[in-house]
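DUF7992 domain-containing protein (Halostagnicola kamekurae), 154 aa
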Amino acid sequence: MGLEVEPPDPPELSFVDPNEYDDATISGGGDIDYRREALQGFLEDGAWEEAFDEWLADTDLERREFEIARDLDLFAGFDFFWDDFADRVGYHAPGIPEDWQAREYHPDLDSWGTVSSINAELTEFGQTVSVLLKEEYIDWEAQYEPPEDLPDFE
């Protein structure tokens, strides 16, 4: 059936080296253009809302769990960046930390199941946004060219 809620505002993308995230590794070294400004424009021009609607149709998140994520402003914590080496839009999904109980993170968080569900669904949403941006909005080609001295594995 899906969840019936209004989409949150898209995140404000700012410079963060994606290699600082535990869940992302970007190759290429040096001055990498993550194209965040263009991605921000796409998100604001409809990609965020389009991906949100697509995600809503399939999410297993319940309204209570969605409201927790919204209360914690987790949607604002997403990061999207161009990964030229892999010719894809990379992303970092925010999540509820492992020490949520000790920190009394949110009064309605009551189980690891709820935390896991929210974190998993945020990851799914990030993937949905990433794929939509690549398939529907991006018209540039990856600029990465491998070194000529790579071995031939054919």
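The chain has one domain: 18-137. The chain has a mean pLDDT of 85. ok done for today
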